[in-house]
Amino acid sequence: MLRYALKRLGVGLLCLVGVSIIIFVAMRLAGDPTLLLLPDDATEQDRIELRQELGLDKPLPVQYAIFVTDAVQGDFGTSTRWKMPAMELVLARLPATLQLAGLAFLIAITIGLLSGVTSATTRGSVFDQGVRLGVTLGLAVPVFWVGLIFIMVFAVDLGWFPTSGRGSFAHLILPAVTMALNPAAAMSRLSRSAMLGVLGADYIKMARVKGNSEARVVWKHGLRNAAIPVATLAGIQLANMIGNTVVVETIFAWPGIGKLIIDAIFARDFAVVQAAICVVAAAYIILNLAVDLTYGLLDPQIRYD
Amino acid sequence: MQTRREFLVSSALVTAAVGLPRIGFAQSQDNITIAIGDEPTTSDQTVAWTGVDYNTIENYAEYLFPRNTDGEIVPGLAAEWTYSEDGKTLDVTLRDDVVFHSGDKFTAQDVVFSYERGIDKSATVKNRLRSLDNIEVKDDYHLTFHFSAPDVTFLPNRGAAMIASNSYFDRVGEEEFSRQPSGTGPYKFSSYAVGEYVEVERFDEYWGAVPPIAKARFIFVPEETTRVASLQAGETDLIMACPYYAVKGFDAVGDFKTVKLPVNHPTMSIVFSTQNPEDPWHDRRVRLALAHAVDTDAIINGVLFGVPQRLAFLAPYEVGYDPDLEPYPYDPEKAKQLLAEAGYPDGFDMELNYAITGRVQMNPQVAEAVAAYFEAVGVRTKLVGEEWEAYRSKYNAAKEPGSSYVALFTHGRAGSPDPTYNLGLFFRAGGPISIYNNPELDAINAEATATMDEEMRGELIKKAVRLIHEDVPSFPIYNNFAVYAMKSSVNFTPTQGFNFDLVLVKDMSFA
Questions:
Q1: What is the pTM of this model?
Q2: Nearest-CA neighbor of B165 among B90, B239, B265, B60?
Q3: Cβ–Cβ below 8 Å for A46 and B195
Q4: For all residues of chain B together, what is the average pLDDT?
Q5: First-to-final CA distance of chain A
Q6: How is residue B506 annotated by DSSP?
Q7: ipTM for this model
């Protein structure tokens, strides 16, 4: 298992290099940052000087080599917009995003599993119909719209929660729920169909015949066997949440990494985009590995050698 | 089934949520919470260069030559000043009773330091001081600015550089200097939470009138709808850049009001590249036809909620304002006739570029409305919307002779520090944001830029504006208005920042 994990980490590292190349080239194709870093009234000479200062006049492979050499030493360059070390900026914003994604994930997995499994066991009931309608809605409504409606209803009209910003636990609720809706719906749908596949199996009948309580049959024998696709989806969802917070963070003025990335992209702040994407990609790789390793816990038949 | 304990916990949570104070920081009458759009890129006043920087910084740092809320340049850090006859030297006497927040005394050396550092670190300062040769220090409170050519925009730009303390910099070094900036303003910088807010506190040893509000917190709320909601929910006392759609609502409810800063930069305009003979709009009559084709009043009332306004060119408060110059009237018949005269009775195909992101609200909606009016006179218009940087690259490329380009653009007409400033930026051949070429106009503007006498300069500016109006290299759709929305208990008089809308806490109070 250790060998497997190390091998996967090696592949992950290669992925990271690939991601860094793609983002490096893509950002430079996206345009000339001097248009945004200098005021409207700057001259062409100013722009040429700034390009030299930023090293953008060098050939791309040379620029990339400089980036990698510095990055392995922990230096991801300096933000052109904030004039601070890029990685420092990213790491300062990371806790806010992890907090938001973490709570959203907990909400999503709790609601998703409970509703999905229950709706599978009560197939065709009013509850099941309701869940299926809820899932369709949850997948279909755009996040920005839900966020704004939540602000209108729960912050402005009812005054239960603050509209935006970070501070108390109350600040976290609306953005986390907004962010959880879509993944909760996806988890619900998947756990319902996975459970439906499992519940007709012979070993479930066997478990019932042995006199197990229905709850034990469903939640232990059933869910355990339906868990692998659900765990896979959960892993992807959590990783997505870390990388996909931009809309929620913008609406709720949440000072996280998503807002930082989008600001940096619009400002063509290469160093920050590179540092942030590397962090997000690393999170993806680690979470994926963690999910793969949990398969062994969920299903003892899976071996890693 | 829910156990009793679970029920209690959940009800406690709901109760806690309901019991939350609706007004957090803003409860005290001495403190104010202000929502601004974006986070400043720096706290250091000498490095500041872009609009979002000045929102917070202008509360704790000052220029030598401030403007009052009426827009007039008044004595401040510079107590007195006199220009030489030729406009090339400016003698300045400084106030001798000014201290920085760090406790350092303000002297002429700080002026030299701030200007040198500004030119080195801020592209905005550098560009505004192109004509500055050097600063000669006579003693601690007397100095002379030497210019290579007379520059009428120096004073209107308030002297262009914000003042910081040299001795503070020498004492604490670069890092601390920008982490804990020290200025001479009525407020001092007190704290900064990255991505969340900047806080300032009243400075009791301020050289001028000590303002009523003790503390202000600027929170960063990029989404305009959320800014509106934060005011409605009572979390903020005042919001900047209130979207036009929310203005009527705030004005109708007794708890809120809006204050508008009329005719702010930019002027949203249709801009043509006029240098390609192949283009239909190379012909002046075609450009004039399109100017007559658009019902701008309908766009302002129908799309922009009636908030902004359209001017022919300059605002009434500006040097060289011409009350007799009328905006192009809406006249589709005349437009069609002009197109026919120019040889396009059946219209032509044209691309209209616009930005889908950026500082200006409702760009896509305005572009669509303009395109519909163009279509109505037979010009088949293809809309090309792009993200700001890509769009600006295309605009820059249109500077090349022979390029073919039409855009809805954040153009500069009214609302600049001095009209010569925008004429030089947006209409001068080779100007940094100009795609226009008219040697006659450039000659008049060069003369105006070197004419210190306001009346004479005004006449020259009038001539320049008439030339542009005749040739139609661009025509205005509407002049941007900066809108501030606030609780009705807040009094606030905004200051025209010229190219930026400012939010100065010193001009706020609670009723």
A1: 0.85
A2: B60
A3: no
A4: 90
A5: 7
A6: G
A7: 0.80
Which two structure tokens, joined as six digits, stand for A259?
């807002």
Per the CB < 8 Å rule, is B225 touching A251? Answer: yes
Q: What is the pLDDT of residues B264-320, one digit of tens each?
A: 788 999 999 998 999 999 999 999 999 999 999 999 999 999 999 999 999 988 999
- In angstroms, how far apart are the furthest CA atoms of chain B? 90
Residues A287 and A52: their CA atoms lie apart, in Å, by: 39
Q: Name, in order, each residue with C-beta under 8 angstroms of A266's C-beta and a sequence gap of 6 or more.
A: A36, B357, B387, B388, B389
> Looking up tokens 């756990």, which residue turns up?
A191
Which string of DSSP letters, residue by residue, matches A64-121?
HHHHHHHHHTT---B-TTT-SBHHHHHHHHHHHHHHHHHHHHHHHHHHHHHHHHHHHH
- CB < 8 Å from B in window 265-294 of A: 266, 268
User: Which of B122, B177, B191, B194 to probe by mutation at the A interface, max A CB count within 10 Å?
Assistant: B194
Q: What pLDDT, on a 0 to 100 scale, did the predictor assign at position B308?
A: 93
Q: Specify the pLDDT at position A305.
A: 61
CA B456, B459, B463, B468 dihedral sign is positive
What is the C-alpha to C-alpha distance for residues B149 and B133, in angstroms, rounded to an integer?
A: 9
Spell out the alpha helix ranges (H) of chain A: 2-30, 34-37, 44-53, 60-72, 86-121, 126-140, 143-150, 169-199, 202-209, 214-216, 223-243, 246-251, 257-266, 270-298
Nearest to A38 among B123, B221, B425 (CB): B123
How many C-beta neighbours within 10 Å does residue A261 have?
Answer: 25
> How far is A246 from chain B, CA to nearest CA, in Å?
12
- DSSP-assigned states of every residue in B474-505: EEEEEE--EEEEEETTEEE---B-SSSB---G
- pLDDT tens string A212-270: 888 888 887 888 788 888 888 888 888 888 777 888 998 999 999 988 888 888 778 88
- CB-based contact B182:B100 (threshold 8 Å): yes
Give pairs for A288-291: CB < 8 Å, separation 24+.
Answer: A288/A12, A288/A235, A288/A236, A288/A239, A289/A5, A289/A8, A289/A9, A289/A12, A290/A235, A291/A231, A291/A232, A291/A234, A291/A235, A291/A236
Helix (H) or strand (E) holding B432: none
Taking the CA atoms of B435, B438, B439 and B440 in sequence, report the sign of the dihedral they define: negative
Do the chains contact at A163 and B432, CB–CB below 8 Å? no
Report the C-alpha gap between B51 and A46 in whole angstroms. Answer: 19
Q: What residues contact B93, with CB distance under 8 A and at least 6 apart?
A: B78, B79, B80, B81, B141, B142
Q: Do B226 and A164 touch (CB under 8 A)?
A: yes
Contact (Cβ atoms closer than 8 angstroms) between residue B210 and residue B204: yes
| Residue type at B406 in one-letter notation | V
